[in-house]
Specification:
Beta Polymerase, domain 2; 947 residues; multifunctional enzyme; 5-stranded mixed beta sheet; Four Helix Bundle (Hemerythrin (Met), subunit A); disordered C terminus; 42 helices; alpha+beta; EC 3.1.4.-; hydrolase
Length: 947
C-alpha cells in the first residue's frame, strides 16, 4: 500500500534470495529433485531461512521501531521463500521443457499480503492464476508448494482460478473483488498477471465505483458496530477495531478502486489529502503496524486484541517510560487512541474529497451517492451554513476565516436543527483548529453556544462526540485536551477518559428526557425538580477532567472548574456548586457501597457533607450517570438500590424527618408489627417466634421479608431440618437471593462464601443474623447470570445445595474449586498496593477496618478468618469491587463489645492483614483449611453480641 525506502528496509539482512536458490539447487543435485530425502531437506532449509529471517525482522523492529518496515520485511521474506519453492518445483520436481499454453501459472499475493505487508502471525493468502483450466502439471505444482508451506507451520489461505473465473466471481462477490484489487505478482508467468489486471479494470472496476464504495463503507460500519462502535475501548482490536489498520485498508481500497492509484501518496497530487495529512497517514499506519507486530512476536500467534495482559509488555517494547501522573502503559495507550483518532480524521477528510469528486463526475447516480447531486438549501437565520440532504455544510470556504466562532456555531446549528454533518464541513473544522485561540476561548458568544450544546434537550452527547473527534473540544477547552485519548490501566474503566465523560453526559441526558424511568426511577423522579440544571451538566462533563495528574483528580478537577465555569457564563454560586460536585463526585457511590447504611453515624456524616437537599439530588444524579458510563456490566440494580437507600435516609435527616424515637421503642414497634402480620399463626406460635429475633434484624429487615422468613423457618422446623435454603430472583436488581437457615458457627461467613465460590457464584451482598436459639439466618445476594427466571431459580437452587453440602461436610471446597480452575491459570497484569486503614471516627459503636488490594478468589474468607483469629467480632462487612481492585470495609468490635483503641493492637491488625493481602491467591490456596476460599462480594453479619 505504501512505499518504504529500500535503504531503510535493508532487505538483504532478512534473506539472500540467491543464496536460498543455490541451497535448494544443491539439495536437488545431491538427492534428486523429486526424492523424499530432497523434500525433507528443502523443508528444513526453508524453515531455517524463515525462522532466521523473522528473528532478524524482530530484532530490527526493536532497533528502529519501524512497524510498516517490519511488515514489509516479513512480506519480502515470504515472497522469496514462495518464489524459491515455485522455482524448485517447476525446475526439479515437475519440470516441463516445452510447456503448452495451459501449463503456465502465476503465483499472486492477496489480502494484507497483497499490499506487501505481513504481520508475524498472519495468514499467507495466495491466489494461483491459470490461463484456462487446471492441468495435472498446475495441480502438482500448487499442491507441492502448499504442502511445504503447511509443513513449515504457516497458515495459508489459497485459491486456484483461471482468469475467467476471477472476473466472474469478482463481479458477484465483493470479498473476491477486493482480493483481486489488491493482488500482487510474486512469481510465475507475469503476462498472466498483467492480463488479469487489464481485464479486471475494464470488465469489473469500470463504472462500478459507487457500488464498491457503498459496499466497503457498509462493511466498515458493520465491523465497527460489532466492535462496540467506538475507538476508545481500553482493550482495542488493532486490526478490526474502529481507528485500526482495517480502517486504513478501507481507505486505500476505495482510493485505489475509484482514483485508480497504486500508492496512497498519489492522493496528495489529486488534492484529496494534503501533504500533512498524508504524513499523518504514514505515521498512523507505521505506529499501528509496530503495535501489531510487537503483539504477534510477544504472543507467538495472530493476536489482534490489545488486552491488558500484554499492554505493559508492548509499552516496554516500544520504549515508553513512566511520567508523573501517567504510567508507561497509560502513556502508550494514550498514544494509541490519539492515532486511532487521527485515523478517524483521515477517514472524514478522505470521504469529503470522495464525495466532491463523485458529485462532479456522476451527478445522476442513484443509491448511496445520489444525494450529492441535490443542491444545498439555505438554513434560515444564517448566510454561512447550508443544509445538504439533512447534513449541515459550509456556504463557502472562508466561513471560518471570516469568524472563527463559526466553528462552534456549526455544531450549535447542527444541534438545534438536528442535522448530520457533511464530511466536508468536518474536514474543514479539522483543518481550521489553529483558529481556536485564546481570543475565541474567551469569546462570550462562543462560550454561550458551547453551554447551549452541552445542556441541549436533544442529543448533546452526539454533538460533543463529533466535536471531540474533529479535535475541537480539546482546542476550545485545553483542560479537556489533556485527557483526550487517556486511558486508565485497570479493568474497571472500559473507555478512555474523554469517551467516559461524553457517555456520562449521554446518560444524564437520557435521565433528563425521561427515557430512564425504568432503569433509574429515583434519578428520573428528582431530575425535573433540580434548579441548577446547567451546573449539573457542567459538573457531569468535567468530573474527571483532571485525571492523569499526580494529585487527587477530584481536588484538581474542582480547581479546574473554578477557573473554567466563569468563562462558560456560570455565576459564582453555580461555579462553587460545580466545584463541590466534582470534588465529591465519588462520595455518594463510595458511601453507599462501602459503609453500613443502617449505622446512623454513616447517614449523619454524609448529611453533614451534603448539607442541602439540592446538592443531595444533584450528587445522586451525577453518581448514577458516572457509574452507568463506566462500561457494560458495571451498573446493576443492586448498586441503584444502595444509592436509593442512602438518598432516602439522608433526605429524612436533611428535612428534619429522621426518627428521634429510641431504638428500643422502634424495636418493640417492629416486633408488634411482625406479630400482627402473622395473624394466621396461633398465639403461642407468634409469641415464640417474635422472641427469636434480636434488635438488628427487626430494624434492618423489611416486614414483608420478615414474614417470608417466618414461613421459611416454620417449614424447616416442621420438617426437622437443621439446614435449609430457599431461592428467589429479582430481575430489576439483577440479583438472586439465597436464604439459608443453619446452626450458628464462628466461621460461618467464610464457609458460606466459600461454598458460593465453589458453585461459581459472585456475591453482591449478604445479610447474616443470629437468632436467640443459636441459629443463623443468612440472606446471600448473588449477581444474576441467566435471563430466564426458571433457569436462574435452578441455578440458585444448585448453589443453595452446594452451601448445604459444605456445611454438612459432604463437599470439600478446595477440591471443588481446584476442579473448576484446573488449566485456567489467569495472568495478573495489574498491581494494586495493599493498604489497611483503621478508623474509630466513622461509627459510634464500631471500629472500621478498610482494606484495598488486588482482587482474588478467597479474599473475603481469608480476611474474615484473620479477623476471627485476632478475636474480633465482625458486625458487618461491605465489599466493593472496582475491576481488579477491591475496597473492603469491616465493622468490628472486640469480644466484649468495645472499639479497638490500643495502638499496639491496631499495628498488629494492620501487619496481619497486610501479610495476607500481599500473598498470591495460588500460594494461599495450597495452605488453606477447608471452607476458607470465597469469591469477592459484600457481607453483613449481625452477631448476638451486638444485640
Amino acid at each position: 500500500m505504501l512505499n518504504v525506502a529500500e535503504d531503510r528496509l535493508d532487505l538483504s539482512r532478512i534473506v539472500d534470495p540467491a543464496q536460498l536458490r543455490a541451497s535448494l539447487d544443491a539439495i536437488a543435485a545431491k538427492h534428486g529433485g523429486a526424492s523424499t530425502k530432497a523434500r525433507q531437506e528443502v523443508l528444513a532449509e526453508v524453515k531455517r531461512v524463515n525462522a532466521a529471517g523473522r528473528e532478524t525482522a524482530r530484532t530490527m523492529l526493536f532497533d528502529d521501531g519501524g512497524g510498516t518496515a517490519c511488515a514489509t520485511r516479513i512480506s519480502h521474506l515470504q515472497d522469496m521463500i514462495t518464489t524459491a519453492l515455485y522455482d524448485y518445483a517447476s525446475t526439479h520436481v515437475y519440470r516441463v521443457d516445452r510447456p503448452s499454453k495451459s501449463e503456465h501459472l502465476t503465483v499472486t499475493a492477496v489480502g494484507g499480503y497483497g499490499r506487501g505487508t505481513l504481520a508475524p502471525g498472519s495468514d499467507i493468502d495466495l491466489l494461483f492464476v491459470l490461463p484456462y483450466k487446471n492441468t495435472p502439471w498446475t495441480e502438482q505444482i500448487v499442491e507441492w508448494i502448499l504442502y511445504i508451506l503447511w509443513d513449515m507451520g504457516l497458515k495459508v489461505g489459497h485459491a486456484t482460478r483461471n482468469i475467467d473465473e476471477c472476473i466472474r466471481l469478482s463481479r458477484s462477490d465483493m470479498t473476491i473483488r477486493t482480493a483481486i484489487l489488491e493482488a500482487r505478482f510474486i512469481c510465475g508467468e507475469r503476462t498472466l498477471f498483467a492480463e488479469l489486471g487489464t481485464r479486471f479494470d475494464t470488465e469489473v472496476v469500470e463504472g462500478s465505483g459507487p457500488e464498491f464504495i457503498a459496499a466497503k463503507l457498509a462493511e466498515r460500519d458493520e465491523r465497527h458496530r460489532k466492535a462496540g462502535d467506538t475507538r476508545y475501548l481500553v482493550e482495542p482490536n488493532v486490526k478490526e477495531g474502529k481507528g485500526g489498520l482495517r480502517d486504513l485498508n478501507t481507505l486505500f481500497w476505495i482510493a485505489k478502486y475509484f482514483y485508480h492509484i497504486r500508492n496512497t501518496e498519489e492522493l496528495v497530487g489529486l488534492g484529496v489529502l494534503s501533504r500533512r495529512e498524508f504524513n499523518l497517514f504514514l505515521k498512523a499506519e507505521d505506529f499501528l503496524w509496530a503495535v501489531r507486530c510487537h503483539m504477534h512476536f510477544l504472543t507467538g500467534k495472530a493476536e489482534e486484541r490489545l488486552s491488558f495482559d500484554i499492554q505493559r509488555d508492548i509499552a516496554s517494547g516500544l520504549g515508553y517510560q513512566d511520567h508523573p501522573g501517567l504510567s508507561a502503559v497509560e502513556r502508550f495507550m494514550k498514544h494509541y487512541f490519539l492515532v486511532a483518532k487521527d485515523v478517524g480524521d483521515l477517514t472524514r477528510i478522505f470521504c469529503a474529497g470522495l464525495e466532491d469528486q463523485q458529485a462532479k463526475q456522476a451527478p445522476g447516480l442513484t443509491g448511496v451517492i445520489s444525494r450529492f447531486a441535490n443542491r444545498p438549501r439555505k438554513i434560515p437565520g444564517t448566510l454561512d451554513f447550508l443544509e445538504d440532504k439533512g447534513r449541515i455544510t459550509l456556504a463557502d470556504a472562508d466561513v471560518f476565516k471570516r469568524d472563527p466562532v463559526n466553528i462552534i456555531r456549526l455544531f450549535h446549528l447542527a444541534d438545534i436543527r438536528e442535522l448530520e454533518f457533511h464530511p466536508d464541513a468536518l474536514k474543514r473544522v479539522t483543518r481550521s483548529l489553529k483558529m481556536i485561540n485564546a481570543e475565541v476561548r474567551e469569546n462570550e458568544e462562543a462560550n454561550r453556544l458551547f453551554l447551549s450544546i452541552l445542556t441541549s434537550k436533544r442529543q448533546p452527547a452526539i454533538i460533543l462526540r463529533r466535536m471531540n473527534e474533529a479535535g475541537l473540544l480539546g482546542r476550545f477547552i485545553p483542560e479537556f485536551g489533556k485527557i483526550v485519548s487517556m486511558m486508565q490501566f485497570n479493568m474497571y474503566h472500559h473507555y478512555t477518559v474523554d469517551e467516559h465523560l461524553i457517555r456520562t453526559v449521554s446518560v444524564l441526558s437520557g435521565i433528563d428526557k425521561g427515557e430512564e424511568t425504568r432503569e433509574h426511577p429515583l434519578a428520573s423522579k428528582i431530575m425535573p425538580g433540580i434548579e441548577e440544571r446547567e451546573a449539573l451538566y457542567v459538573a457531569v462533563f468535567l468530573h474527571d477532567i483532571a485525571k492523569g495528574r499526580p494529585e487527587d483528580h477530584s481536588i484538581a478537577g474542582a480547581r479546574v472548574a473554578r477557573k473554567l465555569c466563569p468563562r462558560l457564563g456560570l455565576s459564582p454560586k453555580q461555579t462553587e456548586l460545580v466545584a463541590w460536585l466534582i470534588e465529591d463526585h465519588l462520595t455518594m457511590s463510595m458511601v453507599s457501597q462501602t459503609r453500613d447504611l443502617n449505622d446512623r453515624k454513616t447517614i449523619t456524616d454524609f448529611a453533614e457533607k451534603v448539607r442541602t437537599l439540592e446538592r443531595l439530588k444533584m450528587l445522586l444524579v451525577l453518581s448514577v450517570s458516572d457509574i452507568r458510563a463506566v462500561g457494560p456490566g458495571v451498573w446493576n440494580g443492586w448498586k441503584g438500590q444502595l444509592l436509593r437507600t442512602l438518598y432516602y435516609e439522608t433526605e429524612l435527616m436533611l428535612s428534619g424527618g429522621f426518627s428521634e424515637v429510641s431504638r428500643k421503642q422502634r424495636t418493640e414497634h417492629a416486633r408488634a408489627a411482625l406479630s400482627e402480620a402473622l395473624a394466621d399463626w396461633t398465639e403461642k406460635e407468634r409469641k415464640a417466634y417474635v422472641k427469636l429475633h434480636y434488635e438488628p434484624y427487626l430494624l434492618a429487615v423489611a416486614l414483608e421479608e420478615q414474614v417470608r422468613h417466618a414461613e421459611f423457618i416454620r417449614e424447616a422446623d416442621r420438617a426437622k431440618k437443621q439446614l435449609a435454603t430457599m431461592v428467589r430472583t429479582n430481575a430489576f436488581h439483577a440479583i438472586t437471593e439465597i436464604t439459608l437457615l443453619s446452626p450458628d458457627h464462628p466461621r460461618l461467613l467464610s464457609i458460606v462464601t466459600g461454598a458460593c465460590a465453589a458453585a461459581g457464584a459472585n456475591i453482591a451482598d449478604a445479610q447474616v443474623f443470629t437468632t436467640s436459639d443459636g441459629r443463623a439466618l443468612d440472606t446471600i445476594l448473588i449477581n444474576r447470570e441467566l435471563p430466564d427466571d426458571e433457569d436462574e431459580l435452578r441455578r440458585g437452587a444448585s448453589i443453595g445445595r452446594m452451601i448445604e453440602d459444605v456445611l454438612a461436610g459432604r463437599a470439600h471446597i478446595p477440591e471443588v474449586i481446584a476442579r473448576k480452575t484446573r488449566g485456567k491459570r489467569k495472568q495478573r497484569p495489574f498491581i494494586v498496593k495493599p493498604q489497611v486503614t483503621i478508623s474509630n471516627t466513622l461509627s459510634n459503636k464500631f471500629t472500621l477496618i478498610e482494606i484495598e488490594c488486588l482482587d482474588r478468589p478467597g479474599l473475603l474468607s481469608e480476611v474474615a478468618s484473620v479477623l476471627s483469629d485476632l478475636s474480633l467480632d465482625i458486625a458487618s462487612a461491605h465489599i466493593t469491587t472496582f475491576g481488579e481492585k477491591v475496597v473492603d470495609t469491616f465493622y468490628v468490635r472486640d469480644l466484649v463489645g468495645q472499639k479497638i483503641t490500643n495502638d499496639n493492637r491496631k499495628l498488629n491488625i494492620v501487619a496481619r492483614l497486610k501479610a495476607v493481602l500481599g500473598k498470591e491467591a495460588d500460594e494461599l490456596r495450597d495452605n488453606m483449611p477447608p471452607g476458607m476460599i470465597a469469591p469477592h462480594g459484600s457481607a453483613r453479619r449481625e452477631r448476638k453480641a451486638s444485640a
